[in-house]
Structures are given as C-alpha cells and as structure tokens.
Amino acid sequence: MSRHYINTTINGDDIEFACHSGQTLLDVLRNELHLTGTKNGCGSGDCGACTVILNGRPVNACLVLGAELEGAEIETIEGMAKEQKLHPLQQKFLDHAALQCGVCTPGFLNMAKAFLEKNPDPTEREVRFALAGNLCRCTGYDKIVRAVMDAAEEMRSS
Fold first, then answer.
1. pTM, full prediction
2. Domains along the chain?
3. Per-residue pLDDT tens for 27-37?
4. Average pLDDT over residues 103-120
5. Are strands 73-75 and 3-10 parallel, antiparallel or unpaired?
C-alpha cells in the first residue's frame, strides 16, 4: 500500500502528515494527528458524527480519503473555540442541554457552524433541514434546534 505525504491546514495550522491510500480523513484525524474530537459513528456517511468543515463545506470525514487533502483547509471541533472562549454554538449547546453522550455533538456543531456562516438568519425549518443529515440517539432534536437558533441570534447581534 503506497504512502502519501500531504500538506494541509487544520484549524489554522499548517500540518504535514503521511497516510495510506485507503485511510479516510477520519482515520487521519484520529489515528495520525490525535485529533479525537471527530467521532466515528457509522463509518458509512449516514450519521454525521464525523462532520468536519473541508474548504468551507461540511463533509463526512469517513467518506473523504486522506490522500485527497493536499492543500485543503480543514476545521475540526478542536479549532472551534478561540483563545479559551467557547464559540457561541458551543455555549448554546451547553445552555440548552443539547447534548448527552457527546458522540454526535462535534458533528452537529460543525454542521451548524458551516450552515450559519452561509445563512446567519435561518428559520427553524431551515435549521432542521440543514441538520437532517446528523443523527442523535440521546437528546432528540428540539434542544439542538433551539441551541442553533439561539446561537444564530447571538452571532447576528455581535
């Protein structure tokens, strides 16, 4: 199996890593770079637990090959908080108790962040539609939707 040497940017830092042809971005993040915030929920792109932001778009890290990432810009949950201050989405997830076991939370947060960057004033229906590819087995979705709506309002105000 051939090894690929990739230069990319992850959470604003220039990173170089080596990976095998079949390794996914999820594998690279967790096993090579030890960024374990991105979770493996299903491994088939069905649950959204591994959602990261790749070149400004949310993607399932389990479906992207590490060898395809040369020059890419990747944002993971580890890069969401800035200077020890939670991102408004993270704070609102806490305020609304929109998490329980935490497996789906990083994926929801990354999906919501990418969505709100494109649509800062969404309706509840638009939020529900945007998050439809992310699954939660613990909380249900109302608290998550309320947290995203509240974060959107705060982000617009600041």
1. 0.96
2. 3-77 (3.10.20.30), 88-157 (1.10.150.120)
3. 999 999 999 99
4. 97
5. parallel
